[in-house]
Amino acid sequence: MRNLNQDNITQAVIASFAKTPDARLKEIMTSLVQHLHAFARDVKLTEEEWFQGIDFLTRCGHITDDKRQEFILLSDVLGLSMLTVAMNNDKPAGCTEATVFGPFHVEGAPHYELGDDIANGAKGTPCTVRGTVKGIDGQPIPGAVMDVWQSDDDGLYDVQHADLGHAQARGIVTADAEGKYHFRSIVAVPYAIPHDGPVGQMLEATGRHPWRPAHLHFMVKAPGYETLITHVFRDHSDYLDSDAVFGVRQSLVCDWVQQTDGSYLMEYDFVLNPTRTR
Length: 278
Ligand code: BEZ
Ligand code: FE
Known about the structure:
The protein has helices at residues 9-16, 23-43, 47-63, 70-77, 80-88, 198-205; strands at residues 126-135, 145-149, 170-174, 180-186, 191-192, 211-212, 215-221, 228-234, 253-254, 256-258, 264-267, 270-272.
């Protein structure tokens, strides 16, 4: 393997993976090299640009810690997260669609009784959230467990408030024997994804904005059904047509209706897909 040149180096690198014991790893590495090299050829990558790319990834690494994950953010704004979600969540018609998980879910959120206020002091306009969890056959799913999280009126999740120290606008509720759930929270507002790092600089340099339309996150679990990770978006919110992370599905948009007392009501039914048997 000497005197490799721009015409034969790709094949040489691919051949170097020939003895990879794991067939899937071999497939992934081979395809990755093919596409990376094709990309470099396509744009006629200069050495200076290659170094800028390395510097960008280095800065993504430096800003990443247990609270900030710049690489996931990068995947999100490049549409890779949503593409992966879409490819792996092809459900039968009628099931609630999945969308991006995002970086703000927290394990071990507090459990609430039906009807409780999960805002727990978070700033925002009161909103009641209710609906039913069912299967594709329309039968309710009793005891479905729903992990819910959202940002406050300032567009910040509790974990983004430096010294808060307790959960706000997040919690776990369990649907009743008829699959019905209801809880109180606050109205979601559009917010900007973290953009004070390299991903934000990339958005700025490419004339893109960092905003997401107003949404409430749900992770719904029930025995015998696939876990559903999704959002419910607020109709007429800004950025529904230009979500920075490409997560909007029309079937997930619903009207959050203002009530006579000024509070809001958001009603949404979730339809889960039975666990697939392969
Ligand atoms: C979110 O909705 O919480 C989110 C998703 C992707 C990137 C940043 C935030
Ligand atoms: Fe979010």
